[in-house]
Specification:
One of its GO terms (molecular function) is iron-sulfur cluster binding. With about 400 residues, the protein is an alpha/beta fold. The protein contains 14 helices and 21 strands. The protein folds into 2 domains: about 325 residues, Aldolase class I (TIM Barrel, Alpha-Beta Barrel); about 60 residues, Alpha-Beta Plaits, CATH 3.30.70.20. The strands form 6 sheets. An 8-stranded parallel β-barrel has the order 3-4-8-9-10-11-16-17, surrounded by 8 helices. A 4-stranded antiparallel β-sheet has the order 6-7-15-12, with no helix packed on it. The protein binds flavin mononucleotide.
């Protein structure tokens, strides 16, 4: 049977499936449910000294949206969006630390890991929250430089407002890294120009790992009422953002390899996505939106799905899969020359491929589809629109 265990920043996780910092980890009771469901780790809701960010959570709102970005009622499609607004942990740090201590104890008894998450508005505050978290017994602390909502809150310099200021973020990272002994993980916003450059700066400042990435900012009008959903601007994400996150994981993994471990979040829906995150280079994969839609049990289901996949594919360990797709990616110049080939025995001559060919390579003569080889660049558009499986092949010149 596959071994799902991993070592991340010197801490052992029984599996890579994590409950991301959000409402499913709002307090000890919720975090225990994530652990009971089988998550290898939970990232606690972000503890904050900002009363504005605590208060925002009392007015949290969210909607699952369909592909047309209309509010779902009952049926939530696979490619849903979660349009949401929420702040950080509800309790003051002093009160929230009781939740952390209780969860740390429970996690120890259940072979799970509790990661603390913090968010302040001043460097001293970040340091103070970091120390409190460390005293609470967590083995890792995530710094939330990605929360999208402070963007709308003048004067609240936390979350994404920090993550978009690389120098200030590095300063905070350095201050917290020097103040605590446990490794710190920096959770970043995707809404920056270059997460490779930023990750390098964070690593140099003392980050033990990075979390790629928090959610995007969005805006969704309701065309029936002419008003925005949930009263206005919000954060947006969902399974459809996965390739965007995976690209950053790929880039950061390529740049720093094992020197900078990665946890992935933003777009992981099920075990298939978890495999994609791991193959791109994330050791720990955090899930939020899908848990908020289907409940805590979703986490355990994905652990079992991952295990089954590994057994079927013969991957003995998570490390056997870690970053393999990123390592296999080649430069454009190394790509082999390919062309389209039509299997005349099964081609139905429907002509769909002609509409999707912009090199004038797919042609039809005497009613039959053929490839004008000298025109074909092997792009593969024809393959994707062809309704007959196996009728078109993209392969080296025959
Ligand atoms: C309602 C809600 C609340 C969240 N609260 C936090 C938070 O307190 N701290 C944090 O770091 N991220 C927070 N997040 C971001 C999630 O941890 C996660 O990174 C994000 O939703 C992307 O993962 P997903 O695609 O699985 O949803 C929140 C997300 C949502 C939807």
């Amino acid at each position: 049977m596959a071994n799902l265990g991993i070592d991340f920043c010197g801490v052992h996780f029984k599996n890579p499936v994590a409950a991301a910092s959000a409402e499913p980890t709002l307090n000890a009771a919720n975090m225990k449910k994530c652990i009971d469901a089988g998550a290898g780790s939970v990232i606690a809701k972000t503890m904050t000294d900002s009363s504005d960010m605590r208060e925002l959570t009392t007015r949290a709102k969210w909607r699952f949206l369909n592909e047309k970005h209309e509010v779902c009622h009952g049926k939530v499609p696979r490619a849903f969006s979660l349009y949401s607004r929420s702040g950080l942990a509800l309790e003051t740090p002093k009160e929230f630390m009781k939740e952390i201590r209780e969860t740390v104890k429970y996690a120890e008894q259940n072979d799970a890991v509790v990661i603390g998450s913090i968010g302040s508005t001043e460097i001293d505050g970040w340091v103070d929250l970091g120390k409190q978290m460390e005293d609470g017994g967590v083995p890792l602390i995530e710094l939330n430089f990605g929360c999208p909502h402070p963007k709308l809150m003048p004067g609240v310099r936390t979350g994404m407002n920090v993550g978009q200021d690389f120098n200030y973020a590095s300063e905070i990272t350095n201050a917290v890294a020097n103040a605590v002994k446990v490794p710190i993980i920096i959770k970043v916003t995707p809404q920056v120009t270059d997460l490779v450059q930023f990750s390098g700066m964070l690593k140099d400042a003392g980050a033990g790992a990075v979390t790629l990435t928090n959610r995007f900012i969005g805006f969704v009008p309701d065309i029936e009422t002419g008003k925005p959903l949930i009263y206005g601007k919000a954060g947006i994400g969902g399974p459809w953002v996965k390739p965007l996150t995976l690209r950053w994981i790929n880039e950061v993994r390529t740049a720093f390899g094992k020197e900078l471990p990665i946890t992935g979040t933003n777009g992981a829906y099920d075990w298939r996505d978890i495999v994609m995150f791991i193959m791109s280079g994330a050791s720990v994969v955090q899930i939020c939106s899908a848990v908020m839609c289907y409940g805590y049990e979703w986490l355990g289901k994905q652990v079992r799905g991952l295990e089954k996949f590994m057994d079927e594919k013969g991957y003995a360990t998570i490390d056997d899969m870690l970053g393999i797709a990123t390592d296999a990616a080649i430069e454009y110049s190394q790509m082999p020359p390919e062309k389209a080939h039509v299997n005349e025995d099964i081609c139905k001559d429907c002509g769909m491929c002609l509409k999707a060919c912009f090199s004038d390579a797919m042609q039809q003569g005497d009613g039959h589809v053929y490839v004008k080889q000298e025109n074909c660049v092997g792009c593969g558009g024809c393959l994707s629109v062809c309704p007959v499986d196996g009728s078109i092949e993209i392969a080296p010149n025959k």
